[in-house]
Specification:
Number of helices: 17
Bound molecules: N~2~-(3-carboxypropanoyl)-L-arginine
Radius of gyration: 20 Å
Structural class: alpha/beta
Number of strands: 15
Largest sheet: 3 strands, mixed
Helix content: 25-40%
């Protein structure tokens, strides 16, 4: 059956800020306390959605979370009016307040793992929101993420929504950022590659020393099981612990795949030769690995430019286009590599550049901002149509951002009760635009 790869991007929320919350994510640590521009961030993200829609791809939008997260602050013992909760938190636990204000749900590659119906035993699309246990500010996303996904993919005949995995580090799950699907046509069955950083129940296995491995093997296996994948079509790959220690906190910082291509750095995986062979064998067809050697581009270049955090898009059927962040053009080694790779004989035929600096400063490139969802024509008809980007929705969202967002935000602003009010009224209006119903705690 004919199927498409849809991209669902996270709309950047009104509290987008730089709080240095993600140990192991170098950009996040480096930009701690910088002033952010939420309006620009949201517009940069929306421009990417518009660009893909204009290229003829199916593009959807996922709503942001309610932030500041008063609900979580109350669970932590803060009480009184919402303004008092904010004031107490700012005084007693400013770092926790910052965590409860993060707009990190914009990176929807971490929203969930999605298995298309062609791969699942019951021929439905399976979703599991990622528990994101390794970072407190992200561990408070999955509940509302699940509600937003259900409101966007509501029809149970086509879509299965699982609960997030248990919220402990043993089952740390970072979602689609560590999941890649290979296939011939999108509607054909696929090979699902699950990438993890460490084993939670086996201490004898290698793991990073300096930075955390956020995602475990046991989490990957559990998802493959609950999505009812055929075990022969699943491949597990361990990230090289050395690159995690150099700032590769998700696989999508060092590798990206699409259809019959894996594009990655030489140092991305442990036992890479076995992995490449397993992929080639499982794929049963013309499979390409485009590997970038360390003496061509260092891991440092990769982490700084986010070359592999690009989107590999099939705009036409005969070649793939790489959508890269502007930082790739600013690094001369990466720029010359890009020019070479598109001129060489491999499936990558061109590249496009986008300015996503507001997100990049928190370690989020083009691929972080999107959740890939392969849908058949019939499944696409069952998607909430108000979440699909077209010229009209683009205009509406652009005006909505213009009306509600600030163009400057720093840490001191996070406790401003006015920011909470602005954010809630923006989200209330958004749930009407996207026809989501009541997904936020403040609406219940
Ligand atoms: O989880 N940054 C995010 C970036 C996520 C990128 N996603 C993918 N690679 N798929 C993270 O580390 C920083 C927030 C701050 O520091 O204010 C942050 O959460």
């Amino acid at each position: 059956m004919r199927a498409f790869e849809a991209n669902f991007d996270g709309l950047v929320g009104p509290t987008h800020n730089y709080s240095g919350l993600s140990f192991g994510n170098i950009a996040s640590s480096r930009n701690q306390a910088a002033t952010s521009n939420p309006k620009l961030a949201a517009k940069q993200g929306l421009a990417k959605m518009k660009k893909l829609a204009d290229l003829g791809l199916v593009q959807g939008v996922l709503a942001p979370q309610e932030r500041p997260d008063i609900h979580t602050l109350r669970r932590l013992g803060f009480s009184g009016s919402d303004a008092q909760v904010l004031a107490q938190a700012a005084q007693q636990m400013p770092r926790v307040l910052a965590a409860c204000c993060s707009a990190s749900s914009m990176w929807t590659a971490n929203a969930a793992t999605v298995s298309p119906s062609a791969d699942t035993l019951d021929r439905r699309v399976h979703f599991t929101p990622a528990n994101l246990t390794n970072k407190f500010h992200r561990s408070i996303e999955h509940d509302v993420t699940g509600r937003i996904l259900k409101a966007s993919f509501p029809d149970h005949r086509y879509f299965v929504h699982h609960q997030a995995l248990p919220g402990v580090e043993h089952f740390g799950d970072e979602g689609a950022a560590n999941h890649t699907r290979f296939c011939k046509d999108y509607g054909d069955f696929g090979i699902e590659m699950f990438v993890f950083g460490r084993y939670a129940f086996d201490d004898s296995k290698p793991k990073p020393i300096k930075f955390p491995a956020r995602h475990t093997f046991e989490a990957s296996e559990s998802i493959a099981r609950s999505h009812r994948l055929n075990s022969q079509d699943v491949i597990y790959a361990q990230q090289n612990p050395d690159v995690i220690d150099q700032g590769v906190f998700h696989n999508d910082v060092i590798g990206v795949g699409n259809r019959n291509l894996l594009f990655c750095h030489e140092q991305a995986y442990l036992n890479k030769d076995k992995l490449y062979n397993d992929l080639k064998r499982a794929f049963d067809g013309d499979f390409h690995v485009v590997e970038v050697a360390s003496d061509r581009l260092s891991v440092n270049d990769v982490v700084g430019s986010y070359l592999f955090n690009s989107q590999l898009l099939n705009i036409t059927d005969d070649h793939m286009t790489l959508l890269v962040p502007e930082e790739c053009q600013q690094n001369s080694a990466v720029r010359s590599y890009l020019e070479e790779v598109v001129a060489t004989d491999n499936p990558i035929g061109g590249f496009e550049v986008m300015d996503l600096k507001q997100s990049m400063r928190n370690g989020g490139g083009p691929a972080c901002l999107r959740l890939r969802i392969v849908l058949t024509e019939e499944e696409l008809k069952a998607v909430n149509p108000s979440t699909l980007i077209n010229d009209q929705l683009y205009q509406q969202l652009d005006q909505w951002i213009e009306k509600h967002y600030r163009d400057q935000l720093s840490e001191n602003d996070l406790a401003d009760p006015q920011l909470l009010m602005e954010s809630r009224s923006a989200l209330d209006e958004l749930t009407q635009i996207l026809q989501l119903g009541t997904v936020y705690p403040f609406q219940r």
